[in-house]
C-alpha cells in the first residue's frame, strides 16, 4: 500500500496522514492497526484482497494477526466463532455465496453474544454466477442478529471498521458486527483517505479487550457455551439478544460521536443530503448514494427540492430517524441492488414503509425499484431517472407503478443469437481405437491404445476461443484426458478458472451437456444428475444410450471446500469420475493458497518477506485421501506423459460405467501465478514427476502401481531442479531457506518411499 506522508494538520485531533487507497486496503489497514488476534478466512472475490493485504503486511512484520486459511467459508466462520469464545479479537471478510455458505454459523455467534467484526464486500449471489457487486448477499444477513453498518467510501470503510469493534464489544451490545461496502466500487476503486498515523491512536480508541465475560479458556470458571434450550429459555435468550441489538443504536451514536471528536469525521445514523426541505428524495445504500448527490445539486439549481437519504446503520433499522427525515417529503423512491422475490419490493422498501406506517401524519408516497444487479453500473443519469419518477408521483399524488425493475433490456426476437459451435454427440467421440478388457485372473484392466497420432483426429470436447491465460495447462491436460474417453459425456465444472473462461454468457466453449455448481457442491450435484438419469431410464421415461460418462471437473482448490462433498460422493460410490486439475492454488480468485499448495511456495496469501517465507505447511495428498474411501480406481497423471494419462482415462471410463466412482488428479501449470514461462509447461510437469514430487501411479481395486518410476529409469532429478523453473519457488533455493528446502525434500522422499512400499506390497 503506497503511503504519502502528508499530515492532516489539526492539533485538536490525533495526527493523520493522507493517501489514496481502496476500500479493501483500508479494511486491512484498520485490522492491522487494531492488531486483531485471529482472522479465519477463505478467498472469494471481491473480498479476497483484504486477507492478501494483511498477509503482505504480516510478511513485513507490520502486525501479529494469526491468519488462518480455512477449507471454506463455513470453516472460516467456525474458526472465527471458536476464537471469539476465548475473548480474542476476531476479524473476517467475505462476499456473496461465501457469506451464504457460512450463514448457518452466524446466528450461533450472535445468539451466544460473542463480538467480532466481519467485512462483507457485497457481491451478487449466484446463480447464474456473477462476481460483481450488488446487495443480494447483504440482504441475507438482515435476520442473523448481527449489527450491520454500511460504508459508502474507502474512507468510511476504515472509519466504520474502527467504530465497529468498539460497538461490538460494548457491554450493552456484545454482538458481532458486519461492515458492508460495495464490491468493486468501494472495494477496489482508490480514493483519497485519511488514516491515523500511529497504531497507538487506534488502539487507544478501541481500548483493551473487555474482561469479565464468560470465555471458553478460563479453567477457574468453566462454562458451557451453547447449551441446549427449550422454548421458554430460548424466548428469553432471543428477547435479550433483541434488546441488545436495539441498544446498539444508542451505543452507535455514542461511539460515532467519540470517533468524530478524534478524527473530525461524522457518521450520523442517517447520511442526509439536503433533506431539510426536500419534496422528493432517493433512499440508497452505499456508493449509489454518493453518485446521486451531484444530481441533487443540479435539481436544486432548477428549483426542485431534492435530497438523498443513505443509512450508516441498517441493523438495528433506524425507523424513527427515517420518520423524521421523511416528515414533509411528498415522494420517496427506494432503490435497491437486490430483490425479495415475490414480495412486491425488496427488503428495505418494506422496512421504510413499515416505519412510515407508524406515523399517521406522514403521507409520503413510496416507490420501489430494483437496480444495479450483478454490478450493473449506476450513473448520474440513472439517479436523474429515479428522481423523475419521484417527481411524477409527487405531482400526480399517486404512484403509477409501485414496484419495478430499472435497467432491464427486453430481448428482440429478430436479434436472437445463433449457435456458434455445432454440438457433438454419439459416434463423434467413438473412435473404436481404444480397447479395455478385464483380466479375470488379476481383477485388473488391460488397456490398448493406438499411437497418439491416431487420436489427434478425435474432436476436442472444448471449442477454441475460451479465455484461458497463455500457457494455461487446464485445457491441454483435460483434452488429453478426454482423448481416452469414448462416446458422450455429461461434464460438470464447479466455479474456477476452467469454468469462468469457457462459459461467458451468451457463449459457451462446451460441445456436450455442461453443468455448473458452486465450489463446495459439485460432486453431490453430479451424483444427483446421474442417479436421476438412471432412475428415469429404468422407468422408461427417457430413451438414451447408457454409455454416458459423467465427469466432474474440479480444480483451483476445489478439493478443499469441496472435500466433504467429494468424500460423501465417493462413499456412496456413484458411477462417475471426479477429475482434479491441480494448479496448486485458488487461481480464479487471484492465486491464493490452497491446501494443495506445497510447502514454501509463494501465493498471494503466503507472501515472502522478512517475517514469512511462503506457505508454512505441507500440501494435501488428495489422491491418497480419496484412495482411502475404497473407490475402485484412483490415478494421477500429467500431459507430459500422454500415453500414461490416456490409458488411465480409458480405465477411469470403464470403472465409472461398470463399477463405481473414480478420482483422478492431473498436475497442470499456471504460468501467470507460478511465475513461469508460458512455453515451459511440459518441461515443468516432467520435472515434477522426475523429482518424485508428483509421482505417476494408480490405485486399482485397492492395489497401488507406480506407472512411471524415475529411479528405475535412472532419470530422477533433485527437487531443486523443478523449483528453479518457477518464480514462486526461487526463494526456496536461497541459502537462508536451506532448512525449508530440506524439510520439503524430506517430505517428498517420505511420500515417495511410502508409495514404493505400497507398490511392492499389494493391499497396503
UniProtKB/TrEMBL annotation:
Positions of the Pyruvate:ferredoxin oxidoreductase core domain: 278-382
Domain Pyruvate flavodoxin/ferredoxin oxidoreductase pyrimidine binding as annotated: residue spans: 30-255
CDD domains: TPP_PYR_PFOR_IOR-alpha_like
SUPFAM superfamilies for this protein: Thiamin diphosphate-binding fold (THDP-binding), TK C-terminal domain-like
GO biological process: response to oxidative stress
Domain Thiamine pyrophosphate enzyme TPP-binding: 549-652
Gene Ontology MF: a single term: oxidoreductase activity
InterPro entries referenced in this protein's UniProt entry, alphabetically: PFOR_II, Pyruvate:ferred/Flavod_OxRd, Pyrv_Fd/Flavodoxin_OxRdtase_N, THDP-binding, TPP_enzyme_TPP-bd, Transketo_C/PFOR_II
Top-rank taxon, per record: Bacteria
Gene3D superfamilies in alphabetical order: 3.40.50.920, 3.40.50.970
Sorted UniProt keywords: 4Fe-4S, Electron transport, Iron, Iron-sulfur, Metal-binding, Oxidoreductase, Pyruvate, Transport
Family assignment from sequence similarity: Belongs to the pyruvate:ferredoxin/flavodoxin oxidoreductase family.
Protein name: Pyruvate synthase
Amino acid at each position: 500500500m503506497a503511503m504519502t506522508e502528508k499530515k492532516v494538520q489539526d492539533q485538536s485531533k490525533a495526527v493523520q496522514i493522507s493517501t489514496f487507497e481502496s476500500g479493501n486496503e483500508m479494511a486491512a489497514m484498520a485490522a492491522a492497526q487494531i492488531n486483531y488476534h485471529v482472522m479465519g478466512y477463505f478467498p472469494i472475490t471481491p473480498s479476497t484482497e483484504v486477507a492478501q493485504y494483511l498477509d503482505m503486511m504480516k510478511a513485513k512484520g507490520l502486525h501479529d494477526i494469526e491468519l488462518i486459511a480455512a477449507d471454506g467459508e463455513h470453516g472460516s466462520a467456525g474458526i472465527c466463532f471458536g476464537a471469539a469464545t476465548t475473548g480474542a479479537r476476531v476479524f473476517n471478510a467475505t462476499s456473496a455465496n461465501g457469506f451464504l455458505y457460512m450463514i448457518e454459523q452466524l446466528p450461533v455467534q450472535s445468539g451466544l453474544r460473542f463480538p467480532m467484526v466481519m467485512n462483507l464486500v457485497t457481491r451478487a449471489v449466484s446463480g447464474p454466477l456473477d462476481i460483481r457487486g450488488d446487495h443480494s448477499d447483504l440482504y441475507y444477513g438482515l435476520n442473523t442478529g448481527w449489527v450491520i453498518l454500511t460504508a459508502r467510501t474507502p474512507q468510511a470503510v476504515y472509519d466504520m471498521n474502527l467504530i465497529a469493534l468498539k460497538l461490538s464489544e460494548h457491554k450493552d451490545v456484545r454482538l458481532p458486527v458486519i461492515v458492508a461496502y460495495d464490491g468493486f466500487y468501494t472495494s477496489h476503486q482508490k480514493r483519497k483517505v485519511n488514516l491515523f498515523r500511529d497504531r497507538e491512536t487506534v488502539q487507544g480508541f478501541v481500548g483493551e479487550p473487555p474482561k469479565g465475560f464468560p470465555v471458553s479458556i478460563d479453567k477457574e470458571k468453566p462454562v458451557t457455551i451453547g447449551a441446549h434450550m427449550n422454548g421458554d429459555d430460548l424466548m428469553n435468550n432471543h428477547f435479550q439478544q433483541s434488546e441488545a441489538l436495539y441498544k446498539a443504536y444508542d451505543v452507535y451514536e455514542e461511539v460515532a460521536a467519540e470517533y468524530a471528536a478524534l478524527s473530525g469525521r461524522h457518521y450520523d445514523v442517517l447520511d442526509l443530503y439536503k433533506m431539510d426541505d426536500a419534496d422528493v428524495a432517493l433512499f440508497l445504500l452505499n456508493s449509489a448514494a454518493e453518485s446521486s448527490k451531484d444530481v441533487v445539486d443540479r435539481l436544486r439549481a432548477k428549483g426542485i427540492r431534492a435530497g438523498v437519504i443513505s443509512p450508516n446503520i441498517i441493523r438495528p433499522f433506524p425507523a424513527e430517524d427515517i420518520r423524521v427525515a421523511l416528515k414533509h417529503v411528498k415522494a420517496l423512491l427506494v432503490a435497491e441492488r437486490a430483490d425479495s422475490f415475490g414480495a412486491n419490493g425488496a427488503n428495505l422498501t418494506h422496512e421504510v414503509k413499515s416505519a412510515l406506517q407508524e406515523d399517521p401524519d406522514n403521507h409520503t408516497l413510496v416507490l420501489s425499484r430494483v437496480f444495479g444487479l450483478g454490478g450493473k453500473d449506476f450513473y448520474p443519469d440513472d439517479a436523474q431517472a429515479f428522481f423523475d419518477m419521484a417527481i411524477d408521483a409527487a405531482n400526480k399524488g399517486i404512484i403509477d407503478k409501485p414496484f419495478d425493475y430499472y435497467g432491464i433490456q427486453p430481448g428482440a426476437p429478430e436479434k436472437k443469437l445463433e449457435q456458434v459451435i455445432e454440438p457433438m454427440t454419439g459416434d463423434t467421440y467413438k473412435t473404436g481405437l481404444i480397447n479395455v478388457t478385464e483380466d479375470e485372473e488379476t481383477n485388473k484392466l488391460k488397456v490398448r491404445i493406438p499411437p497418439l497420432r491416431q487420436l489427434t483426429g478425435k474432436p476436442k470436447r472444448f471449442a477454441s476461443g475460451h479465455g484461458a491465460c497463455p500457457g494455461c495447462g487446464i485445457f491441454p491436460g483435460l483434452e488429453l484426458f478426454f482423448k481416452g474417453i469414448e462416446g458422450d459425456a455429461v461434464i460438470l465444472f464447479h466455479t474456477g478458472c476452467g469454468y469462468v473462461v469457457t462459459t461467458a454468457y451468451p457463449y459457451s466453449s462446451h460441445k456436450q451437456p455442461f453443468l455448473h455448481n458452486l465450489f463446495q457442491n459439485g460432486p453431490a450435484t453430479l451424483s444427483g444428475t446421474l442417479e436421476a438419469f438412471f432412475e428415469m431410464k429404468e422407468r422408461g421415461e427417457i430413451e438414451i444410450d447408457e454409455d454416458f460418462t459423467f465427469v466432474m471437473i474440479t480444480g483451483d482448490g476445489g478439493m478443499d471446500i469441496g472435500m466433504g462433498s467429494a468424500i460423501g460422493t465417493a462413499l456412496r460410490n456413484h458411477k462417475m469420475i471426479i477429475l482434479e486439475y491441480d494448479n496448486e492454488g485458488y487461481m480464479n480468485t487471484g492465486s491464493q493458497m490452497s491446501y494443495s499448495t506445497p510447502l514454501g511456495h509463494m501465493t498471494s496469501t503466503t507472501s515472502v518477506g522478512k517475517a514469512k517465507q511462503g506457505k508454512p505447511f505441507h500440501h494435501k495428498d488428495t489422491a491418497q485421501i480419496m484412495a482411502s474411501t475404497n473407490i475402485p480406481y484412483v490415478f494421477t497423471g500429467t500431459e507430459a506423459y500422454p500415453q500414461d494419462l490416456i490409458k488411465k482415462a480409458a480405465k477411469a471410463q470403464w470403472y465409472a460405467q461398470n463399477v463405481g466412482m473414480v478420482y483422478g488428479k492431473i498436475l497442470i501449470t499456471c504460468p501467470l501465478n507460478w511465475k513461469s514461462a508460458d512455453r515451459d509447461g511440459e518441461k515443468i510437469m516432467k520435472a515434477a514427476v522426475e523429482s518424485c514430487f508428483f509421482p505417476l501411479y494408480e490405485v486399482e481395486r485397492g492395489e497401488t502401481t507406480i506407472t512411471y518410476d524415475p529411479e528405475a529409469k535412472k532419470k530422477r532429478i533433485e527437487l531443486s531442479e523443478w523449483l528453479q523453473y518457477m518464480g514462486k519457488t526461487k526463494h526456496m533455493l536461497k541459502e537462508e531457506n536451506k532448512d525449508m528446502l530440506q524439510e520439503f525434500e524430506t517430505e517428498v522422499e517420505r511420500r515417495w518411499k511410502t508409495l514404493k512400499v505400497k507398490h511392492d506390497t499389494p493391499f497396503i
